[in-house]
Design brief:
Strand content: 5-15%
Order of helices and strands: HEHHHEEH
Helix content: 55-70%
Number of helices: 5
């Protein structure tokens, strides 16, 4: 019976499981994205989230606690510098697991696990939403240019009409003066 066993043992003894999660965690911190089985990715997410939370506070104690989990100086440096800078304001949910299909050899379900803030494709803050209009931008710019041309033509026509009216007024005044003189 498996009463009270809340986490996935991954078919390994305790020391082997800890070593596996430690190595996966180091690889994730160094490469920012790794591909593994879905079960390992989910176990790694539970393992790495508290470590990344510790990495947000750069104190000697938190560095030692993180080192006790990872046992790798370069990974600790990377976590407290590059990773902590990117995820400093995020209140949790530092990694994402994306299912990628099944492995050809044994049919195991594969997944990609990555840091959320290091993927530029999924980063929605900086991304510009595509427009939902069916018209293309070329047509839109052509119609705006046509509208501007039409507006310019109308103003030129109004100015010409005003000049012609002023010319007619002066012409009628001249003829009236000539009639008075005659």
């Amino acid at each position: 019976m498996r009463h009270g066993k809340k986490f996935n043992h991954l078919g390994r003894k305790t020391a082997h499981r800890k070593a596996l999660l430690r190595n996966l965690g180091i690889s994730l911190i160094e490469h920012k994205r790794i591909e593994t089985t879905l079960a390992k990715a989910k176990a790694l997410r539970k393992f790495i989230e508290p470590i990344v939370t510790k990495g947000k506070v750069n104190t000697m104690h938190s560095r030692r606690v993180v080192f006790s989990y990872l046992q790798n100086k370069e990974a600790v440096k990377e976590l407290f510098s590059t990773v902590a800078d990117k995820i400093g304001d995020r209140p949790g949910g530092y990694v994402r697991v994306i299912k990628t299909g099944f492995r050809r050899s044994d049919g195991a379900e594969m997944a990609m696990i990555e840091f959320v803030d290091f993927n530029e494709v999924y980063n929605l803050k900086d991304a510009k939403k595509p427009s939902r209009r069916r018209r293309s931008k070329a047509k839109k710019s052509d119609s705006t240019a046509t509208a501007e041309t039409t507006a310019t033509t109308e103003t030129v026509n109004e100015e010409t009409a005003a000049e012609e009216t002023a010319a007619e007024d002066t012409a009628t005044e001249d003829t009236k003066e000539e009639e008075k003189d005659a």
